[in-house]
Predict the structure.
Amino acid sequence: MRRLLSISIVGFWLVMLGLLVQRTRRIVPAEPVAFDNAESTPVDEWMSVYHDGRKIGYSRYRLSQEGDHFAFSEESLLRMTVLRTPQTVRVRMHGHTANDFSLRDVEFDLSSGAGNLRATGVVAASGLHLTLHTGTDVTEQVLPLNGPLYLPSTLRGLLVPGALQAGRHMDVLVFDPVSFNNDRMSVTVERQEPLPGGGGTLAWRVREEFHGVTTTSWMDVSGAVLREEGPMGFVLVRATSQQALNSEWTDLTALDLVAGAAVPVARPIDDARSRRSLRVRVSGIPVEEVPTDDEQARHGPELTITRPTLDQLTSYRIPYSQGDHSEDLRATLFLQVENPKIQAAARAAVGDERDAVRAARRINDWVHGTLRKVPTISIPNALQVLDMGEGDCNEHAVLFAAMARAAGIPTRTVAGAVYLDGAFLYHAWCEVWLDRWVPIDPALHQFPADATHIKFVVGGPNEQLAMIGIIGRLGLDVLE
């Protein structure tokens, strides 16, 4: 259990970071661009990835013209350690754009030895058609579009002479292959300055903001990225293929997820797993963005967390029909509620029980008892977790959420931090609706979850991207 806790949600965030940092890209002009059909020079660019000065991986981006459209591909490799367990994460993405570099189709693969993921997307008149492949099963979803859609990396094609000007700002709709959603990317050209570590070479400093995550890039006059700095101390540096693939690797380069992400506290919490109340002071992040509700009240920078006992919970007969919680019952790309395998698992766990509290408890027991506790770096979906039969807190949370929804219990996933051995570690769990949102943690086998569970984000991968801006900045002081 300590191993599972220590892995926590950090692996999920690092995968996201790996995808974010590999996006070498160029600037989007604010005004419409006129394109010609002249043959362009193929692009083949490599970057070395560093963390705290140590090389942990590389990325490669390629772009070539094929008639009236462009073909692109991206790949990256990151080496890391989870409690002395080596992990290698490979990400591959390829597809096509129109001649204005707007997306036509994309295929995305993530491989980490466990929790492998493959997804495809095709732009059509009705929107972006997404397909998630899990073994022989597929899950489909259509995202509506109201204009051209881009990938962060293919924005480079929209560079025109003179786009790099101090103060220039632009926004564009992009598809994020991590969260399988569309959002706005904001790009601001700040100034021309010496490239960090570049021996006096002048470069344009560019700030990019995407879903609350900020990266800073330095580009040459052609728009090629020379250096990029992201959250949590990740840095990319332009390299040759030989440098990216073969240089600076040592046995000590693997990034330890746990050591780099724990939030230590000066005042220990005794008997944390039985704690029903907790008061902490939050620092380092915008406190007004921390969720507040019946279980977690915010007063300025202070949070007071209280937990009911099991016998204090209000129940109802499932499936839930007493209010508007349809959003918390529906299927998503990651929670395949209507899949026969998920439905069968929910029936196996719940049996003939129709009381919501007792049914939630049965599903909690089933998920905790069924899944093997294994370090897993992935972007989990419920069907994949059910097939694998293993995972860490993320896998436990998505499988519980899908099964509970299938049983008729409004459920949502949340992300935050939980206390263990003198520090708070990033973690994922669920909440079920019982006339209030009540935390339930299938990884720790807790219902309700103890008061050291501090919630920072509510929702699936799209919302949980916000956690990237918290890791490495969060401070917590235990007050009571």
Remarks:
- The chain has a mean pLDDT of 83.
- The first helix runs from residue 2 to 7.
